[in-house]
Amino acid sequence: MDSTPLFDAVAAPDEQAREDVFTRLAQADTVGAGLGRLGEVAGWVAACQGQVPPRPVTRARVVVFAGDHGIAARGVSLLDPGTSVVQTEQVREGAGAVNVLARAAGASIRMVDVSLDHEAWGDERVARSSGAVDVEDAMTAEQFDRALEIGRRIADQEVDGGADLLIPGDLGVGGTTVAASVLGAFTRTEPVAIVGPGVGMTDGMWKIKVSVIRDAMFRVRGLAAQPLEVLRMVSSPDFVALVGFIAQAAVRRTPLLLDGALVTTAAYVAERLAPGARDWFWAGQLTPEPAHLIALQALDLTPLIALDMTAGQGTGALAALPLVTSAVELVADELSSCG
C-alpha cells in the first residue's frame, strides 16, 4: 500500500516573495534591517501567501487531535490514562491553558476526538484507544485509512473555512512514547537517546519507557522503507490523523506553526509522505523532549521560542503565535513606509 501517492504534489512557497522581503528590508532604515529572525518569519509568511508585503494573519486556527494510547497502561506517565477524556471536555468547555493562550493570541480552537478511550462515535472517530505498540499493532489497516482520511478532510475543511495559519495540536496520555517509537524507527535512534522526561517522569518510569520504545522499535525493524506499515503498527489513530492533516494543509498551501514532540514527529512523517510539505512549516517552540529536537533537526527547523512547555494541545505554538503576527505587521509597516 506504500506505492501509491497518498497526497497531491506539494507546491513550493513563492521564493521570489521571500527574497523581495529580505531585499527590501536590507535597503530599509536601521529598524527594518535589524529585525533579525522576525524578518525571516515574515519572509516565510510572504512566501506562503505569495504576496509582498504579507497580509496580516487574522484567522489562526488550532486543531487538536485527541487520542488515548494503549501503551499508557505500562506506566510511562504519572497521568492516569483517563485524564485525556477529562482534559478534552475541559478544552471544549473553554477552560485550560490552550483556551487562555488562544484568546490572548486571537486564535480559535477545534477539538477532534479521534481515539479517546470512551464510548463515542461519529465522523471523526476511529477507535477506542489504540493497541499497546510494544506487543501489538496500534490499529488495523481499515482504521489507519480512516484516520488518515479524517486528517485530510479536516485540513480541507479548515482551509475552505478561511484559516490563514494552522496550529496542529495533540492531546493524550502516552503521546510522547508514541512519538519516540515512530521517530526512533525512522531515524534509527537508540531508545535511550530519544526518551525525554515526560510529565512527572521518575527514574523507574524512564526505564519502563525506554524498554517500551525499544520493544516497539524492534517490532518494525527493517520496515523504514514502508512508512505506512510502521505507522499502522507503532503509532496511533490520532497520530495518523495529524499526519494527514499536516500533509494536506501543505498541499493546500497553508502555513503551519508546529508545537511539541508528537506534532513535530507527525510533521516529519508528513514530509516523507508529501515531499515539500516542510517548506510550509515553522517551528513555534522547543521542548525538553529529545524526540522533539531530533525531529526539528531532521526537518532543519529552528524554533522561535524555548519555554520548555510540554502541555501539548498546541500551547507552545500558541505562545509563539504573537511573534509571527507581530513579525508580519512589523515588516508590512516597514516596507510600506520605505515605498
Summed over residues and divided by their number, the pLDDT gives a mean of 90
The largest sheet is:
3 strands, parallel
CATH superfamily (homologous) name = Nicotinate-nucleotide-dimethylbenzimidazole phosphoribosyltransferase (CobT), large domain
Order of helices and strands: HHHEHHEHEHHHHHEHEHH
CATH class: Alpha Beta
Radius of gyration: 19 Å
**What's the CATH topology name?**
Rossmann fold
Assembly state = single chain
Uncertain spans, ≥5 residues at pLDDT below 50?
none
Class per helix and strand makeup: mainly alpha
The number of helical elements comes to 14
Beta-strand proportion = 5-15%
Q: What's the CATH architecture?
A: 3-Layer(aba) Sandwich
Q: Roughly what percent helix?
A: 40-55%
The shape is globular
Strand order of the largest sheet: 2-1-3
Number of domains: 1
Separation of the first and last Cα atoms = 53 Å
Structure overview:
Pathway: Nucleoside biosynthesis; alpha-ribazole biosynthesis; alpha-ribazole from 5,6-dimethylbenzimidazole: step 1/2. Pfam families: DBI_PRT. Keywords: Cobalamin biosynthesis, Glycosyltransferase, Transferase. With 339 residues, the chain is mainly α. The protein has a single domain, classed as Nicotinate-nucleotide-dimethylbenzimidazole phosphoribosyltransferase (CobT), large domain (Rossmann fold, 3-Layer(aba) Sandwich), CATH 3.40.50.10210. Helices cover 50% and strands 9% of the residues. It contains 14 helices and 5 strands. The protein has helices at residues 15-26, 30-33, 37-49, 83-92, 97-105, 141-160, 175-187, 191-194, 203-219, 227-234, 237-251, 261-273, 290-299, 315-337, and strands spanning 60-67, 108-115, 165-171, 256-258, 281-283. The strands form 2 sheets. A 3-stranded parallel β-sheet has the order 2-1-3, with helices on both faces. A two-stranded parallel ribbon has the order 4-5. Helix 7 (175-187) packs across helix 9 (203-219). The longest helix is centred in the last third of the chain and has 23 residues, at 315-337. It starts with 14 loop residues before the first helix and ends with a helix. The model has no long low-confidence stretch (mean pLDDT 90).
